[in-house]
């Protein structure tokens, strides 16, 4: 990244970082909502963007500053911001985040924080196989009526495995000598 103030290098770089920040805006705007178009961002996603892109540093920019900037730029009754309002919110925070820098340098710093960032999936539940979980979910070790709900491969039989099929033969389930009474009794 070049920071020359001459002939338009800064302008050229700003348009490149503008495209990158638009892409980051789109990713965060559609994060967590399958119906989102990526053209409008909620306050929750705005806060997530500021945390994940390190705009919030805990000293000069706090989560309260982020919420205030969001409220300032959105329309009165709106619950979302557009990309243009997003840029205005970045301008609000850039002077706080990059103190002592010019407005252009501060905005360039903000765009650099956004380049190539994706929403982080922190706190996502992972599948665990610690302790007795493997033993408890191994269908080959099931006994009794639960054993009947799964085939040899461990795949569930569905409704067929849950239906209570009645055997009216007079013998208890799994009795190996079923039907042999008549041969054992002498008449």
From TrEMBL:
Gene Ontology MF terms: tubulin binding
Protein family membership: Belongs to the TPPP family.
GO CC aspect terms: cytoplasm; microtubule
One Pfam family matching this protein: p25-alpha
Annotated transmembrane regions: none
Protein name: Tubulin polymerization promoting protein family member 3
Matching Gene3D superfamilies: EF-hand (1.10.238.10)
Gene transcribed to yield this protein: LOC102357734
Organism (species): Latimeria chalumnae
One GO term of the biological process aspect: positive regulation of protein polymerization
Compartments it resides in: Cytoplasm
Compositional bias annotation for Basic and acidic residues: 145-167
Stretches for region Disordered: 138-187
């Amino acid at each position: 990244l070049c920071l020359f103030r001459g002939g338009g290098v800064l302008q050229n770089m700003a348009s490149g970082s503008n495209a990158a920040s638009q892409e980051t805006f789109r990713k965060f705007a559609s994060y967590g909502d399958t119906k989102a178009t990526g053209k409008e961002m909620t306050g929750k996603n705005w806060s997530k963007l500021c945390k994940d892109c390190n705009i919030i540093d805990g000293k000069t920019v706090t989560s309260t500053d982020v919420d205030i900037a969001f409220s300032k730029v959105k329309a009165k009754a709106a619950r979302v911001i557009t990309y243009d309002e997003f840029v205005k919110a970045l301008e609000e925070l850039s002077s706080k985040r990059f103190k002592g820098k010019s407005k252009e340098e501060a905005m360039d710093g903000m765009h650099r924080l956004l380049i190539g960032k994706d929403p982080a999936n922190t706190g996502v539940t992972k599948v665990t196989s610690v302790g007795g979980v493997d033993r408890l979910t191994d269908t080959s070790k099931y006994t009794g009526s639960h054993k009947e709900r799964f085939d040899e491969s461990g795949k569930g039989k569905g409704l067929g495995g849950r239906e209570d099929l009645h055997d009216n033969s007079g013998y208890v389930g799994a009795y190996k000598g079923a039907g042999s009474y008549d041969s054992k009794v002498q008449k």
